[in-house]
UniProtKB/TrEMBL annotation:
GO terms under cellular component: nucleus
Subcellular location: Nucleus
GO biological process: mRNA splicing, via spliceosome
Protein name: Lariat debranching enzyme, C-terminal domain-containing protein
Source organism of the structure: Cercophora newfieldiana
Protein backbone atom coordinates (compact mmCIF):
# COMPACT_ATOMS: atom_id res chain seq x y z
CA UNK A 1 0.00 0.00 0.00
CA UNK A 2 3.04 2.28 0.08
CA UNK A 3 3.16 5.11 -2.41
CA UNK A 4 6.44 6.16 -4.02
CA UNK A 5 5.00 9.60 -4.78
CA UNK A 6 4.93 10.85 -1.19
CA UNK A 7 7.93 12.22 0.73
CA UNK A 8 9.56 10.30 3.54
CA UNK A 9 8.83 11.44 7.05
CA UNK A 10 11.61 12.19 9.52
CA UNK A 11 10.48 12.62 13.12
CA UNK A 12 11.75 12.64 16.69
CA UNK A 13 9.84 11.10 19.61
CA UNK A 14 10.16 11.83 23.34
CA UNK A 15 8.53 9.76 26.07
CA UNK A 16 7.72 12.03 29.03
CA UNK A 17 8.71 15.68 28.70
CA UNK A 18 8.46 16.69 32.39
CA UNK A 19 8.67 20.38 31.51
CA UNK A 20 12.27 20.21 30.25
CA UNK A 21 11.82 21.78 26.83
CA UNK A 22 15.22 23.49 26.77
CA UNK A 23 16.93 20.16 27.43
CA UNK A 24 14.74 18.36 24.89
CA UNK A 25 15.45 20.78 22.06
CA UNK A 26 19.19 21.00 22.85
CA UNK A 27 19.57 17.22 23.07
CA UNK A 28 17.54 16.80 19.91
CA UNK A 29 19.87 19.13 18.03
CA UNK A 30 22.92 17.23 19.29
CA UNK A 31 21.35 13.90 18.32
CA UNK A 32 20.51 15.15 14.83
CA UNK A 33 24.04 16.50 14.36
CA UNK A 34 25.43 13.15 15.45
CA UNK A 35 23.37 11.58 12.66
CA UNK A 36 24.61 14.11 10.10
CA UNK A 37 21.73 16.58 9.82
CA UNK A 38 19.97 19.39 11.68
CA UNK A 39 16.79 19.42 13.73
CA UNK A 40 15.48 21.79 11.04
CA UNK A 41 15.42 18.77 8.73
CA UNK A 42 12.86 17.04 10.94
CA UNK A 43 9.20 17.20 10.03
CA UNK A 44 8.11 17.31 13.65
CA UNK A 45 8.79 16.25 17.23
CA UNK A 46 6.33 14.14 19.23
CA UNK A 47 6.11 14.32 23.04
CA UNK A 48 4.00 11.52 24.55
CA UNK A 49 2.60 13.24 27.61
CA UNK A 50 3.68 14.76 30.92
CA UNK A 51 4.46 17.77 28.77
CA UNK A 52 3.68 20.20 31.62
CA UNK A 53 2.48 23.32 29.83
CA UNK A 54 2.85 25.48 32.94
CA UNK A 55 2.34 29.13 31.99
CA UNK A 56 2.71 30.65 35.45
CA UNK A 57 2.97 29.78 39.12
CA UNK A 58 -0.76 29.20 39.58
CA UNK A 59 -0.86 26.54 36.87
CA UNK A 60 1.43 24.47 39.10
CA UNK A 61 -1.46 24.14 41.57
CA UNK A 62 -3.50 22.39 38.85
CA UNK A 63 -0.91 19.68 38.34
CA UNK A 64 -1.12 16.29 40.04
CA UNK A 65 2.34 16.37 41.58
CA UNK A 66 3.22 16.61 45.31
CA UNK A 67 3.83 20.25 46.16
CA UNK A 68 7.47 19.66 47.14
CA UNK A 69 8.19 18.21 43.68
CA UNK A 70 6.49 20.90 41.60
CA UNK A 71 8.72 23.03 39.42
CA UNK A 72 7.94 25.72 36.91
CA UNK A 73 9.91 24.14 34.07
CA UNK A 74 10.70 25.77 30.75
CA UNK A 75 7.35 26.03 29.01
CA UNK A 76 6.51 29.51 30.34
CA UNK A 77 9.28 30.95 28.15
CA UNK A 78 7.75 29.44 25.02
CA UNK A 79 4.30 30.64 26.08
CA UNK A 80 5.44 34.23 26.67
CA UNK A 81 7.53 34.38 23.49
CA UNK A 82 10.88 34.57 25.27
CA UNK A 83 11.81 31.29 23.53
CA UNK A 84 10.69 29.67 20.28
CA UNK A 85 10.21 25.96 19.58
CA UNK A 86 12.78 25.24 16.83
CA UNK A 87 10.78 22.34 15.38
CA UNK A 88 7.04 21.71 15.06
CA UNK A 89 6.09 19.88 18.25
CA UNK A 90 2.97 17.69 18.62
CA UNK A 91 1.94 16.55 22.09
CA UNK A 92 -0.67 14.54 23.96
CA UNK A 93 -1.43 14.92 27.65
CA UNK A 94 -0.33 12.64 30.47
CA UNK A 95 -1.06 12.43 34.18
CA UNK A 96 1.31 15.20 35.31
CA UNK A 97 -0.02 18.22 33.45
CA UNK A 98 -1.29 21.75 33.98
CA UNK A 99 -4.72 20.24 33.43
CA UNK A 100 -6.51 23.58 33.53
CA UNK A 101 -4.70 24.71 30.38
CA UNK A 102 -5.34 21.42 28.58
CA UNK A 103 -9.02 21.71 29.50
CA UNK A 104 -9.20 25.06 27.69
CA UNK A 105 -8.01 23.27 24.54
CA UNK A 106 -10.21 20.18 24.84
CA UNK A 107 -10.61 20.09 21.03
CA UNK A 108 -6.88 20.66 20.51
CA UNK A 109 -4.86 23.75 19.64
CA UNK A 110 -1.58 25.62 19.98
CA UNK A 111 -0.18 25.58 23.51
CA UNK A 112 2.48 28.01 22.31
CA UNK A 113 3.77 28.97 18.87
CA UNK A 114 4.82 25.81 17.01
CA UNK A 115 3.64 23.50 19.85
CA UNK A 116 0.35 21.74 19.07
CA UNK A 117 -1.77 19.79 21.55
CA UNK A 118 -4.05 17.08 20.11
CA UNK A 119 -6.72 17.62 22.76
CA UNK A 120 -8.45 15.04 24.94
CA UNK A 121 -8.64 13.03 21.73
CA UNK A 122 -7.88 14.18 18.24
CA UNK A 123 -6.90 13.45 14.66
CA UNK A 124 -4.91 15.81 12.45
CA UNK A 125 -3.11 15.66 9.12
CA UNK A 126 0.49 16.44 8.28
CA UNK A 127 0.49 16.19 4.50
CA UNK A 128 -0.47 12.60 3.66
CA UNK A 129 0.20 11.47 7.23
CA UNK A 130 -2.77 10.96 9.56
CA UNK A 131 -1.99 11.34 13.27
CA UNK A 132 -4.38 10.30 16.06
CA UNK A 133 -3.93 10.77 19.80
CA UNK A 134 -5.59 10.12 23.14
CA UNK A 135 -4.53 12.12 26.20
CA UNK A 136 -4.40 11.16 29.86
CA UNK A 137 -4.21 7.75 31.51
CA UNK A 138 -6.80 5.03 32.07
CA UNK A 139 -8.52 4.70 35.42
CA UNK A 140 -11.57 2.39 35.44
CA UNK A 141 -13.23 4.34 38.27
CA UNK A 142 -13.59 7.44 36.13
CA UNK A 143 -13.69 5.99 32.62
CA UNK A 144 -17.49 6.14 32.25
CA UNK A 145 -17.87 9.52 33.95
CA UNK A 146 -18.37 12.87 32.21
CA UNK A 147 -15.84 15.70 32.11
CA UNK A 148 -17.17 17.25 35.29
CA UNK A 149 -14.05 18.93 36.73
CA UNK A 150 -14.08 22.72 36.59
CA UNK A 151 -11.95 25.30 38.35
CA UNK A 152 -11.35 25.70 41.20
CA UNK A 153 -10.16 22.08 41.43
CA UNK A 154 -10.35 20.21 44.70
CA UNK A 155 -7.98 17.39 45.56
CA UNK A 156 -10.12 14.78 43.79
CA UNK A 157 -10.51 16.92 40.66
CA UNK A 158 -6.76 17.33 40.28
CA UNK A 159 -6.39 13.54 40.36
CA UNK A 160 -9.26 12.74 37.99
CA UNK A 161 -9.25 15.51 35.38
CA UNK A 162 -6.56 13.76 33.33
CA UNK A 163 -8.26 10.35 33.33
CA UNK A 164 -9.31 9.04 29.91
CA UNK A 165 -13.07 9.15 29.34
CA UNK A 166 -15.12 6.65 27.37
CA UNK A 167 -16.69 9.46 25.35
CA UNK A 168 -13.31 10.38 23.83
CA UNK A 169 -12.36 6.78 23.11
CA UNK A 170 -15.71 6.15 21.45
CA UNK A 171 -15.17 9.09 19.14
CA UNK A 172 -11.90 7.57 17.93
CA UNK A 173 -13.66 4.23 17.47
CA UNK A 174 -16.00 5.90 14.96
CA UNK A 175 -13.06 6.39 12.57
CA UNK A 176 -13.42 4.34 9.40
CA UNK A 177 -10.28 5.38 7.54
CA UNK A 178 -6.79 4.07 8.47
CA UNK A 179 -4.42 5.96 10.74
CA UNK A 180 -0.65 6.20 10.20
CA UNK A 181 0.59 7.31 13.65
CA UNK A 182 -1.12 6.94 17.03
CA UNK A 183 0.01 8.62 20.27
CA UNK A 184 -0.87 7.97 23.89
CA UNK A 185 0.67 8.48 27.29
CA UNK A 186 0.17 5.07 28.87
CA UNK A 187 0.77 1.85 26.95
CA UNK A 188 -2.03 -0.25 25.50
CA UNK A 189 -2.70 -3.15 27.87
CA UNK A 190 -0.91 -6.40 26.89
CA UNK A 191 1.24 -4.70 24.25
CA UNK A 192 4.27 -5.92 26.21
CA UNK A 193 3.37 -9.48 25.21
CA UNK A 194 4.15 -8.63 21.58
CA UNK A 195 7.75 -7.75 22.50
CA UNK A 196 10.47 -9.15 24.74
CA UNK A 197 8.24 -9.33 27.80
CA UNK A 198 10.56 -11.74 29.60
CA UNK A 199 13.35 -9.18 29.61
CA UNK A 200 10.91 -6.41 30.48
CA UNK A 201 9.51 -8.30 33.48
CA UNK A 202 13.02 -9.23 34.59
CA UNK A 203 14.05 -5.57 34.46
CA UNK A 204 10.81 -4.28 35.97
CA UNK A 205 9.34 -7.00 38.26
CA UNK A 206 6.57 -4.62 39.33
CA UNK A 207 5.30 -4.69 35.74
CA UNK A 208 4.68 -8.42 36.03
CA UNK A 209 2.95 -7.88 39.36
CA UNK A 210 0.69 -5.29 37.74
CA UNK A 211 0.07 -7.52 34.72
CA UNK A 212 -0.98 -10.40 36.98
CA UNK A 213 -3.31 -7.99 38.77
CA UNK A 214 -4.77 -7.12 35.35
CA UNK A 215 -3.82 -3.47 35.84
CA UNK A 216 -0.84 -2.91 33.51
CA UNK A 217 -1.61 -0.50 30.70
CA UNK A 218 -4.78 0.91 29.22
CA UNK A 219 -7.52 -1.41 27.98
CA UNK A 220 -9.22 1.37 25.98
CA UNK A 221 -5.90 1.98 24.24
CA UNK A 222 -5.78 -1.71 23.36
CA UNK A 223 -9.22 -1.41 21.80
CA UNK A 224 -8.02 1.58 19.81
CA UNK A 225 -4.90 -0.28 18.71
CA UNK A 226 -7.02 -3.10 17.30
CA UNK A 227 -9.40 -0.67 15.63
CA UNK A 228 -7.07 1.98 14.22
CA UNK A 229 -4.23 -0.42 13.30
CA UNK A 230 -1.70 2.40 12.86
CA UNK A 231 1.71 1.81 11.33
CA UNK A 232 3.30 3.35 14.44
CA UNK A 233 2.18 3.77 18.04
CA UNK A 234 4.27 5.92 20.39
CA UNK A 235 3.81 6.19 24.18
CA UNK A 236 5.54 7.23 27.40
CA UNK A 237 4.52 6.92 31.07
CA UNK A 238 6.29 3.66 31.98
CA UNK A 239 9.77 5.23 32.18
CA UNK A 240 11.50 2.55 30.15
CA UNK A 241 12.27 2.06 26.49
CA UNK A 242 10.37 -0.85 24.99
CA UNK A 243 9.62 -2.01 21.45
CA UNK A 244 7.01 -4.44 20.18
CA UNK A 245 5.46 -5.42 16.86
CA UNK A 246 1.73 -6.10 16.73
CA UNK A 247 0.62 -8.00 13.63
CA UNK A 248 -3.11 -8.27 13.04
CA UNK A 249 -4.69 -10.44 10.38
CA UNK A 250 -7.60 -9.57 8.16
CA UNK A 251 -10.88 -10.45 9.82
CA UNK A 252 -9.32 -10.94 13.25
CA UNK A 253 -9.11 -8.65 16.25
CA UNK A 254 -6.27 -7.87 18.62
CA UNK A 255 -7.52 -10.39 21.18
CA UNK A 256 -7.24 -13.15 18.57
CA UNK A 257 -3.61 -12.10 18.09
CA UNK A 258 -3.02 -12.21 21.86
CA UNK A 259 -4.28 -15.78 22.07
CA UNK A 260 -1.86 -16.85 19.34
CA UNK A 261 1.18 -15.57 21.18
CA UNK A 262 3.63 -18.10 22.53
CA UNK A 263 5.75 -18.05 25.71
CA UNK A 264 3.15 -16.16 27.70
CA UNK A 265 3.13 -17.14 31.41
CA UNK A 266 0.09 -19.32 32.08
CA UNK A 267 -1.11 -17.15 34.97
CA UNK A 268 -1.04 -14.18 32.63
CA UNK A 269 -2.58 -16.06 29.72
CA UNK A 270 -5.56 -16.94 31.90
CA UNK A 271 -6.31 -13.23 32.28
CA UNK A 272 -6.46 -12.50 28.56
CA UNK A 273 -9.94 -11.80 27.17
CA UNK A 274 -11.53 -14.22 24.80
CA UNK A 275 -11.13 -13.62 21.05
CA UNK A 276 -14.19 -11.83 19.79
CA UNK A 277 -13.20 -10.69 16.32
CA UNK A 278 -13.78 -7.07 15.42
CA UNK A 279 -16.42 -5.01 13.69
CA UNK A 280 -14.00 -2.16 13.20
CA UNK A 281 -12.29 -0.82 10.12
CA UNK A 282 -9.20 -2.68 11.25
CA UNK A 283 -10.74 -6.08 10.60
CA UNK A 284 -10.86 -5.31 6.90
CA UNK A 285 -7.12 -5.53 6.36
CA UNK A 286 -3.89 -7.03 7.64
CA UNK A 287 -1.74 -4.56 9.52
CA UNK A 288 1.56 -4.35 11.39
CA UNK A 289 2.00 -1.76 14.14
CA UNK A 290 5.44 -0.87 15.41
CA UNK A 291 5.05 0.11 19.07
CA UNK A 292 7.67 2.21 20.84
CA UNK A 293 7.44 3.22 24.48
CA UNK A 294 10.03 5.71 25.71
CA UNK A 295 11.23 6.88 29.12
CA UNK A 296 11.38 10.34 30.71
CA UNK A 297 13.86 13.14 30.13
CA UNK A 298 16.79 12.68 32.50
CA UNK A 299 17.39 9.01 31.81
CA UNK A 300 20.04 8.04 29.21
CA UNK A 301 19.21 9.74 25.91
CA UNK A 302 18.51 6.53 23.97
CA UNK A 303 15.89 5.67 26.59
CA UNK A 304 13.79 8.82 26.12
CA UNK A 305 14.58 10.19 22.66
CA UNK A 306 14.23 8.50 19.28
CA UNK A 307 15.00 10.06 15.90
CA UNK A 308 13.53 7.94 13.15
CA UNK A 309 12.76 7.99 9.43
CA UNK A 310 9.24 6.59 9.09
CA UNK A 311 9.40 6.25 5.31
CA UNK A 312 6.38 7.15 3.22
CA UNK A 313 2.74 7.30 4.28
CA UNK A 314 1.28 3.85 3.58
CA UNK A 315 -2.41 4.77 3.48
CA UNK A 316 -3.60 8.33 3.05
CA UNK A 317 -1.87 9.48 -0.12
CA UNK A 318 -4.80 10.59 -2.29
CA UNK A 319 -5.79 13.78 -0.51
CA UNK A 320 -4.40 16.84 -2.33
CA UNK A 321 -6.15 19.30 0.00
CA UNK A 322 -3.83 18.13 2.81
CA UNK A 323 -0.61 18.54 0.82
CA UNK A 324 0.03 22.29 0.81
CA UNK A 325 3.61 23.08 1.84
CA UNK A 326 4.69 25.91 4.10
CA UNK A 327 7.43 28.37 3.16
CA UNK A 328 9.96 26.07 4.85
CA UNK A 329 9.16 23.17 2.54
CA UNK A 330 7.29 21.29 5.28
CA UNK A 331 3.56 20.57 5.35
CA UNK A 332 0.93 22.60 7.12
CA UNK A 333 -1.01 20.96 9.93
CA UNK A 334 -4.59 20.37 8.81
CA UNK A 335 -7.80 19.33 10.43
CA UNK A 336 -8.94 15.83 9.46
CA UNK A 337 -12.30 15.95 7.69
CA UNK A 338 -13.56 12.64 9.09
CA UNK A 339 -12.66 13.74 12.62
CA UNK A 340 -14.49 17.03 12.10
CA UNK A 341 -17.57 15.09 11.04
CA UNK A 342 -17.32 12.86 14.13
CA UNK A 343 -16.92 15.90 16.36
CA UNK A 344 -20.08 17.42 14.91
CA UNK A 345 -21.99 14.15 15.19
CA UNK A 346 -20.97 13.55 18.80
CA UNK A 347 -20.96 17.01 20.37
CA UNK A 348 -24.44 16.56 21.90
CA UNK A 349 -23.10 13.72 24.03
CA UNK A 350 -20.21 15.78 25.44
CA UNK A 351 -20.98 16.27 29.12
CA UNK A 352 -19.28 19.32 30.60
CA UNK A 353 -20.01 20.80 34.01
CA UNK A 354 -21.73 24.19 33.92
CA UNK A 355 -19.10 26.78 34.98
CA UNK A 356 -21.52 28.55 37.31
CA UNK A 357 -23.24 25.63 39.03
CA UNK A 358 -20.90 22.70 38.26
CA UNK A 359 -23.96 20.71 37.17
CA UNK A 360 -23.30 18.12 34.48
CA UNK A 361 -25.88 17.93 31.71
CA UNK A 362 -27.52 14.51 31.19
CA UNK A 363 -26.08 12.33 28.44
CA UNK A 364 -27.95 11.89 25.18
CA UNK A 365 -26.41 8.50 24.60
CA UNK A 366 -23.17 7.14 23.17
CA UNK A 367 -24.31 5.73 19.85
CA UNK A 368 -24.15 7.70 16.63
CA UNK A 369 -25.98 6.39 13.60
CA UNK A 370 -23.94 5.77 10.47
CA UNK A 371 -26.39 7.97 8.59
CA UNK A 372 -25.59 10.85 10.95
CA UNK A 373 -21.85 10.48 10.27
CA UNK A 374 -22.49 10.39 6.52
CA UNK A 375 -24.57 13.56 6.78
CA UNK A 376 -21.89 15.30 8.84
CA UNK A 377 -19.16 14.19 6.44
CA UNK A 378 -21.17 15.82 3.62
CA UNK A 379 -21.59 18.99 5.71
CA UNK A 380 -17.85 19.16 6.42
CA UNK A 381 -17.00 18.72 2.75
CA UNK A 382 -19.38 21.46 1.63
CA UNK A 383 -18.66 23.96 4.41
CA UNK A 384 -14.99 23.36 5.23
CA UNK A 385 -13.15 21.23 2.66
CA UNK A 386 -14.60 22.88 -0.46
CA UNK A 387 -14.05 26.33 1.07
CA UNK A 388 -10.37 25.65 1.75
CA UNK A 389 -10.70 25.85 5.54
CA UNK A 390 -8.90 22.65 6.56
CA UNK A 391 -5.58 24.31 7.43
CA UNK A 392 -5.20 24.70 11.20
CA UNK A 393 -4.79 28.44 11.85
CA UNK A 394 -1.59 29.49 13.56
CA UNK A 395 -3.58 31.89 15.69
CA UNK A 396 -1.95 31.48 19.08
CA UNK A 397 -2.35 34.37 21.51
CA UNK A 398 -1.10 34.30 25.11
CA UNK A 399 -4.28 35.06 27.04
CA UNK A 400 -3.32 34.01 30.58
CA UNK A 401 -0.76 35.86 32.73
CA UNK A 402 2.85 34.88 32.11
CA UNK A 403 5.40 33.93 34.73
CA UNK A 404 5.90 36.55 37.42
CA UNK A 405 8.90 35.69 39.63
CA UNK A 406 7.84 38.28 42.21
CA UNK A 407 4.43 36.75 42.84
CA UNK A 408 3.98 34.73 46.05
CA UNK A 409 1.73 31.74 45.39
CA UNK A 410 0.53 29.37 48.10
CA UNK A 411 -0.62 25.77 47.44
CA UNK A 412 -4.29 26.64 47.98
CA UNK A 413 -4.43 29.33 45.27
CA UNK A 414 -6.11 28.50 41.96
CA UNK A 415 -6.12 30.33 38.62
CA UNK A 416 -9.14 31.58 36.74
CA UNK A 417 -10.54 29.47 33.93
CA UNK A 418 -9.77 31.51 30.84
CA UNK A 419 -11.96 31.31 27.72
CA UNK A 420 -9.64 30.15 24.94
CA UNK A 421 -10.26 31.82 21.60
CA UNK A 422 -8.84 28.85 19.69
CA UNK A 423 -11.60 26.66 21.14
CA UNK A 424 -14.21 29.31 20.36
CA UNK A 425 -13.05 29.58 16.73
CA UNK A 426 -12.97 25.80 16.33
CA UNK A 427 -16.58 25.54 17.52
CA UNK A 428 -17.52 28.42 15.24
CA UNK A 429 -15.89 26.62 12.29
CA UNK A 430 -17.98 23.51 12.99
CA UNK A 431 -21.05 25.55 13.95
CA UNK A 432 -21.45 23.68 17.23
CA UNK A 433 -22.03 25.13 20.72
CA UNK A 434 -18.90 26.00 22.66
CA UNK A 435 -19.46 24.08 25.89
CA UNK A 436 -16.25 25.59 27.27
CA UNK A 437 -17.43 29.19 27.01
CA UNK A 438 -16.82 31.30 30.10
CA UNK A 439 -17.59 34.91 31.04
CA UNK A 440 -14.79 36.94 29.50
CA UNK A 441 -11.97 38.20 31.69
CA UNK A 442 -11.65 41.88 30.81
CA UNK A 443 -7.88 41.82 30.81
CA UNK A 444 -5.00 40.03 32.47
CA UNK A 445 -4.07 43.37 34.00
CA UNK A 446 -7.48 43.74 35.66
CA UNK A 447 -7.47 40.09 36.70
CA UNK A 448 -4.01 40.23 38.25
CA UNK A 449 -3.04 36.59 38.13
CA UNK A 450 -6.61 35.40 38.16
CA UNK A 451 -6.81 34.14 41.71
CA UNK A 452 -9.83 32.14 42.83
Amino acid sequence: MESSGTPELKVAVVGCGHGELDNIYATLESECERKGFSSRDLDFLIICGDFQAVRNELDLNCMSVPHRHRKLGDFHKYYSGAAQAPVLTIVVGGNHEASNYHFELYHGGWLAPNIYYLGAAGVIRYGPWRIAGISGIYNPRNYHKPHSERLPYDRDDIRSVYHVREYDVQRLLFLRSPVDIALSHDWPAWVELFGDHKQLFATKPTFLTSALANSLGSKPATELLGHLRPSYWFAGHMHIRFEATVELEEGAGIYDALKRLEDVPEKLRALLPRPSGSSSVGSAFTAKTEFLGLSKVGSPTFQWLEVRNLGRAPYNTNAPHYSRNTTTGKFDLNYDEEWLAITRACFAGLQIADPETLVVAPSRGKKVAAMTLDEERKWVKENIVDKGLLSIPRDFVAHAPVHNPDLVVTPDMQPLEYPNQQTARFCELLQIPNKFAMPSVESTEDAGLGLL
